[in-house]
Prior knowledge:
mainly alpha, elongated
Amino acid sequence: MKFGLSLPDRLRAENARLMKKNPKHDSSDEMRPEYDFSAGVRGKYAPRFREGTNVIVLDPDVAAEFKDSAAVNDALRQVLKARAKR
């Protein structure tokens, strides 16, 4: 008597074969040759990062009223001047 895999078992075996990790993958800690950081400057943007940033997210209906961030800043400065005069 000859035994064979049922269809689901054959599909499962094929999937297992396809999903195995590639043993040819190089998992060494060395950098690839195409990554060349020889001209890089360490900490180039560190001072700017340390200064921080204050990101404000506008609601879509408010943002639609301004063409860019300069317009938003101008409007806010006008509000601050009007408030200071009170």
